[in-house]
Amino acid sequence: MRDRLTERQNQVYEFLRDYVRRQGKPPTIKEVGQSLGIRSTNGVHKMLVVLEKKGYITRTPNEARGLELVDDVGFGAEEAPGVLMLKLTEGVGRRARRMTSETADHPLPRSRRPLLIDPGLVPDDVDLDDCLGVVAADDGMNGAGVRKGDLVVVEECHWRDVSNGATAAVLFFDRVVIRRFELANGRLHFRAADRTYADEAIRPDDPEFFVIGRALAMMRPLT
User: Fold this and answer.
1) What are phi and psi of 35, to 5 degrees?
2) Which of 39 and 76 is assigned the larger pLDDT?
3) Which residues make Cβ contacts (< 8 Å) with residue 22, sequence separation at least 6?
4) Model pLDDT, residue 160
5) How many other C-beta atoms are found inside a 10 Å radius of the C-beta of residue 148?
6) How far apart, in whole angstroms, are the C-alpha atoms of residue 37 and residue 180?
7) The pLDDT of residue 191 is above 90
8) Are residues 127 and 213 located together in one domain of the fold?
9) What are residue 135's phi and psi, to 5 degrees?
10) What does DSSP assign to residue 2?
């Protein structure tokens, strides 16, 4: 198991991963600094050294694009982060067919390969057809046992139906993160269990955030 990433380290790693997916090659140190607001090349270098020590990248000295991702982290790593449809049997359920259609109205990219799971992972009163799987994009809930790359089973619901103190899956900009949910003073609060990650407080109508629903169970790939 890799060492956890701080919020800033995770931002750098995700930038590297997105860049490689889009461009088919790694960025230069200058491109990393420009995109992430790191003014000094030494600052970028130090961040890459940490990522290498933690097992996320390898580097080739004296090459402009001399870094390589060790591998993508977690379930569905070859695809963009998004929704994994769940199914009880080898036949895809009705909801999976709807959600993987071209006209599905959902803010997350969807995998077309449903994941077979044990229904015993979710409470008896939860319909698996109301659930989906998301991949945690950071280590913000490391202190609560959820790591970057873990697959989390989520019951889709409106934020009004998520109880204070419950664990929720939230779309932050273009990343799915797991956080402790709280409604207070007319704002939605998302609290991290790892102190290197900042808590977020937003208005319910903020378009950059979307509460997917209640987190019910977690699965971790064997490595």
Assistant:
1) -75, -30
2) 39
3) none
4) 94
5) 23
6) 29
7) yes
8) yes
9) -100, 125
10) P
Beta 83-87 vs 115-116: how paired, if at all? parallel
| Within-domain flag for 81 | no
Closest to 17 (Cα-Cα) out of 56, 52, 43, 54 = 56
pLDDT of residue 101: 43
Residue 2 lies in a domain: no
| Residue 180 pLDDT exceeds 50 | yes
Mean pLDDT, all residues of the chain: 82
Over 80: is that where the pLDDT of 164 sits? yes
Q: Which has the higher per-residue pLDDT, 110 or 27? A: 27
> Is 220 or 213 the better-scoring residue by pLDDT?
213
Which pLDDT belongs to residue 104? 46
| pLDDT of amino acid 111 | 61
Query: Does 151 map to a domain?
Result: yes
Q: Closest Cα to residue 212, out of 172, 160, 158, 174?
A: 158
Tell me the one-letter amino acid at 82: G
Spell out the alpha helix ranges (H) of 24-127. Answer: 29-36, 41-53, 94-99
Give the predicted TM-score (pTM) of the model. 0.78
CATH of the domain at 15: 1.10.10.10
Q: How many residues does the chain have?
A: 223
Helix axes 29-36, 7-23, angle to 10 degrees: 120
Residue 118 CA to residue 139 CA, distance in Å, equals: 25
- Domain harbouring 167, CATH code: 2.10.109.10
Distance in angstroms (rounded) separating the CA atoms of residues 191 and 180? 5
Under 8 Å between Cβ of 213 and 167: no
Phi, psi dihedral angles at 175 (to 5 degrees): -120, 140
